[in-house]
Design a protein that fits this description.
With 917 residues, the protein is α+β, with helices and mostly antiparallel strands. Helix content is 39%, strand content 25%.
Length: 917
């Protein structure tokens, strides 16, 4: 291989190892960069450098397009194998080329070409071929690379006017320049162009069978084109005439087919139209301009069955109207003919109108009549009887909705009200006109609207409905408690059904309150029963213990150690007695002795008792106005009420400096009306009301003082720690305490509740954490101004015999011992039966009997004794009894009634007035 400018590239590629011609072609510079010896021979060059210096940029558009397509295919990773015709100086060479992508430095595009020579036509061979064609009947010519005529045979001279001595360009012989350019480009690209074309001739434009072959100019060695043209103009004209004749025949047949198809379509359309008219749910009637019936469908006949025989095509419409007027009794000024003329005129004079036709049988038709442009009249009848009935039913339902007690409203998709019944508007304090067109949000506070948007409306969208309770806002700003039911409408709006549940909630609150009272009453009753059972046995034990301890105090020296021990036993027993009294106070508050008690003495005595028990850091004060306020009740129990409140106040103050203030007054109280009280009905028996202010102050009202009547008010105020509102709600519950374990029983305020309720009173409490507590005890004022003075009787002793009856041996023995120590003679019996047997042989002056004994109660014993000795004094005693108190004992015939534990002095005080000579 000869050396050249790119010999290094050739050596690197080792192109000489290729058996076939091979070269590297630069697609950007249009030069061969490297080639082997076989390639130099194919291109008919003497040396490699001549081939490398050759410029191939003079190429046809077809060649450029083929090479551009190679670029695209190379980028896609393809290898191209195609046939090419090359034009070296020695003549055209046909070769099959295998082209593949080759990378050059600098991102230049190139391809490696391997060629397999298919044929080679030397220049002299082309010349001999042209000489052979000189006598051919087809026009043959050669055109050079510049498109100019090189040589032509005689047929080309005659048929096309191509002459060697006259300038002629191949591009100018085509009648269609664009077609010529495409043919030339095709041939110059190395392919044979074989097609029919219109060429310019001395006789005008004619059709030729044209063939363009790539060739080589034998004189210059440059590329050339051999053109062969055969006149086919007559054949094309004959073919055209035959084509036009065939087209005419085809067009005629097509028109015949189209006419037949049009006729079929018209018939089909007519049939479809009649079927459509027959299938209408409306009655259809067509009347021509001469007022004759053209068509009436089956539905029209069904609507007017009495006119069926007149609904035939060609029937006179006037006769149809006349028959209808007779059947329906239609007249104008008493004339059916006048109505018929008016009806015909109405149908013709109006371009189109709707109206309702009411028949005698109750049916209603919607009539739609229109006159067409051709003068015919189309009349449609729609039976709207079901619609009218539905409208009537809907009207009735609307009236029902309007009259409903529940609020009903509807909104559009934007949320604005489009309907609202009076009940809904009245709930919010207005009329429907006040709300229509306004958004539903106007009925609620912003917080409620936000809750609806964030919580309820998503649930409504998901389920289609939502139901719940909420609070609305009336026009006057007041609140409305309501139950709301929402449903989505197909329009995107809402259906809202609303019910005012304020009264229902009030009823529920009242029911809950009554239920709570019932539970409280049952609890108190159960506690009372428990307390009574404990009190009965415990009082018997206390009676024995206190009695014998009192005997010790009487017998011992006052300053002795033993007397002090006995006093301690008495003090402990009295504390136990007070505890039992408290239990019985809230367990059985109705057991109150009815005496006239001065309120000022109750306060004074309470303060005196407290003075020795309170620490010095707590100061007592009283505010008692002049005048004796009197209440009816139990003196000791009233003192116990104030004592319990004072003890609570002491514990609230603790070790800090403080004060407890007592005050007293008589007035007519102002009391909040109970929530459950009827407007004009009686006051409820018991009511607990609570109120909390924003500053934390809590208020409680328990019970209800008699309206319009004077009360005596005991007030106890302390400077202690106060109590939170949550604690205030439970302070009167038994065993509720805020004190540490072991420091309180939780019975103090429960006892206060029971004692005050038993006296027919009420309680008011006010407290605030850190600001102390105020208790107000309100008791009905007594009618008498002062309690009656009781004359004290001197203790009588002597030879009186007393029978003591009790099933508890300790109590019986203690009472008998106490009477004996006072100079009385005593007898003892452990049951009522034993007492009756004893009295068969013994005489007594009085009987002291326990009420609760096995076999026979004290009352039963008393009645048995009074059968024979009606005037025998019987004193009944009990530690606890559900059926016996002072009143029932007196009514049964008892001379006196005493509560255990009974001291000897108290017993003697009762006996003294009974034992008269």
């Amino acid at each position: 291989m000869a050396a050249g400018p790119d010999a290094g590239l050739s050596e690197r590629l080792r192109l000489d190892t290729f058996k076939r011609p091979a070269w590297i072609f630069d697609l950007d510079s249009w030069r061969i960069l490297a080639a082997n010896a076989a390639a130099v021979h194919l291109w008919n060059r003497r040396r490699l450098d001549e081939l490398l210096q050759a410029d191939f940029s003079e190429h046809s558009p077809a060649v450029a397009e083929r090479l551009q397509s190679y670029r695209r295919r190379f980028e896609a990773g393809e290898t191209v194998e195609e046939d090419w015709t090359f034009y070296p100086p020695g003549g055209p060479v046909a070769a099959r080329c295998l082209c593949s992508h080759f990378d050059l430095p600098g991102f230049r595009a190139a391809m490696l070409v391997e060629a397999t020579v298919l044929s080679r036509t030397p220049a002299e061979g082309v010349t001999r071929s042209l000489e052979a064609l000189r006598h051919a009947g087809a026009a043959v010519a050669m055109f050079g690379s510049d498109g100019r005529l090189i040589a032509a045979n005689p047929a080309a001279h005659v048929q096309l006017g191509w002459r060697d001595d006259e300038p002629c360009r191949l591009a100018d012989v085509f009648s269609d320049p664009k077609h010529g350019a495409e043919a030339i480009a095709w041939a110059e690209g190395g392919a044979i162009f074989d097609d029919e074309a219109v060429l310019r001739t001395p006789l005008g434009d004619r059709w030729f069978a044209l063939r363009l072959n790539p060739a080589h100019d034998p004189a210059s060695g440059e590329r050339a084109l051999v053109v062969s043209a055969t006149d086919i103009n007559e054949r094309r004209r004959t073919e055209r005439l035959l084509s036009e004749s065939e087209q005419a025949r085809v067009a005629s047949e097509r028109q015949a087919r189209e006419l037949a198809a049009a006729q079929r379509r018209a018939a089909e359309a007519e049939r479809t139209l009649r079927e459509a008219i027959e299938s209408l749910d409306q009655g259809f009637l067509l009347v021509d301009r001469d007022d004759r019936i053209v068509l009436a469908n089956r539905r029209y006949a069904e609507l007017y069955p009495a006119l069926t025989d007149l609904l035939q095509p060609g029937a006179i419409f006037h006769e149809l109207i006349q028959r209808f007027a007779e059947l329906e009794g239609l007249e104008i000024d008493g004339s059916a003919d006048a109505w018929v003329e008016w009806r015909i005129r109405q149908m013709r004079e109006r371009q189109g109108h709707f109206w309702e036709q009411n028949l005698r049988d109750g049916r209603t038709f919607l009539v739609n009549e229109r006159e067409t442009a051709s003068g015919t009249v189309v009349s449609l009848r729609t039976d709207i009887t079901p619609i009218k009935r539905t409208q009537a039913a809907l009207h009735e339902r609307v009236l029902a909705i309007e009259a409903a007690n529940d609020g009903i409203a509807m909104t559009d998709a934007s949320g604005a009200f489009i309907f609202m019944n009076p009940a809904h508007a009245a709930m919010f304090g207005g009329t429907p006109d006040d709300f229509l067109g306004r958004p539903w949000e106007c009925l609620y506070d912003p917080e409620v609207v936000r809750m609806f948007r964030e919580d309820h409306i998503p649930d409504l969208i998901a389920a289609g409905t939502w139901r719940g309770e909420t609070e609305g806002r009336k026009l006057d700003g007041s609140r409305l408690e309501q139950e709301v039911s929402l449903s989505l409408l197909e329009t995107g709006g809402l259906l809202c059904v609303t019910r005012d549940i304020g009264e229902r909630r009030a009823a529920e609150a009242e029911r809950n309150r009554l239920q709570t009272q019932l539970f409280q009453s049952q609890k108190m009753d159960s506690l009372g029963r428990l307390a009574g059972g404990i009190a009965h046995d415990f009082n018997n034990i206390l009676a024995s213990m206190l009695g014998y301890a009192a005997f010790l105090q009487e017998d011992l020296m006052p300053d002795s150690e033993q007397a002090r021990y006995a006093g301690a036993i008495v003090a402990a027993g009295k504390r136990a007695q007070d505890l039992i009294s408290q239990i019985l106070a809230f367990g059985r508050p109705r057991e109150v002795s009815r005496d006239m008690v001065r309120a000022d003495e109750v306060v004074t005595e309470t303060v005196q008792l407290l003075a020795s028990t309170l620490p010095p850091t707590i100061r007592l004060s009283t505010d008692i106005p002049a005048g004796a306020f009197v209440v009816e009740g139990d003196r000791s129990q009233l003192i116990q009420v104030l004592m319990n409140l004072a003890v609570n106040a002491r514990d609230s103050i603790g070790t800090a400096d403080g004060r407890i203030d007592f005050s007293l007054r008589c007035h007519r109280p102002v009391w909040p009306k109970p929530r459950n009280a009827a407007k004009d009905g009686p006051e409820p028996e018991t009511e607990v009301q609570l109120e909390r202010e924003r500053d934390g102050t809590g208020r409680l009202w328990l019970g209800q003082p008699a309206a319009g009547k004077e009360v005596v008010e005991f007030t106890v105020r302390d400077s202690g720690c106060g109590m939170p509102f949550e604690v205030m709600q439970s302070i009167f519950e038994p065993f509720f305490t805020t004190k540490k374990r072991g420091q309180g029983t939780g019975l103090g305020l429960a006892a206060v509740h029971g004692l005050v309720t038993g006296h027919g009173g009420a309680i008011a409490v006010e407290s605030k954490p850190g600001r102390g507590t105020l208790f107000r005890i309100l008791l009905p004022a007594a009618q008498s101004s002062a309690p009656a003075t009781v004359e004290t009787q001197q203790l009588r002793t002597g030879t009186y015999r007393i029978l003591v009856v009790d099933d508890e041996e300790g109590v019986r023995s203690m009472l008998a011992t106490g009477l004996a120590r006072r100079g009385f003679a005593t007898l003892e019996a452990d049951s009522g039966a034993s007492a009756l047997r004893l009295l068969d042989s013994q005489t007594v002056d009085a009987v002291i009997s326990d009420q609760t004994m096995p076999g026979m109660s004290g009352v039963e014993l008393m009645r048995a004794l009074h059968v024979h000795r009606p005037n025998l004094p019987v004193i009944l005693c009990t530690g606890y009894s559900e059926t016996l108190d002072a009143e029932t004992a007196a009514a049964a015939g008892a001379a006196a009634f005493l509560r255990k534990p009974v001291s000897s002095d108290a017993l003697i005080e009762v006996l003294s007035p009974l034992l008269k000579d």
